[in-house]
Amino acid sequence: MCSHRSPEGGAFAYLRGALGMDGHGYNGWPYSPVGGCAQMWERIFALLARAGAERHGPFPRGLGWREWALACVNPFALLLGPWYYFYKGMFLKGGLYMGLSMIFWALCDLALPGGAEGAASWLPGLAMALLANYDYYLFRCHGIRTVRSAPALLGTGAGVAAVLALGFLLRLLTH
Prior knowledge:
175 residues; mainly alpha; 10 helices; 61% helix; globular
């Protein structure tokens, strides 16, 4: 059951309070941002909200090891990379991460000897595995569709398309 439908004092009542959900939408939105989420996502969002992820970034403080692993590590993003972001509807971030991954791989092909680039190829996936839950939390609960610390240009479709084009070009030239 989603938090906006749970009875008062339910397991996710503190999440409703933390996110400003009053049952009549979310801060002017016509729907609850966590409405329709699986209980797992509600729990992850509650952990991130409780730990102050808005202030502390993708690695919130004050969580135990198991809570941190649940809130901050996403094995599907590790395996699927930017395709996981596309599946979740985070197209700008997925495109940006795909372009940055291709740029990283091209630089690894140029800088690393022999088979070392194969080991380094997992690093973008690892970064996405550590950022995916936080990015999805910002997307669903706060409506943030871009990377907050990136330049404004990278938060637009044109900026993401430019990064993708540069990534494709560098990949073609180095592979």
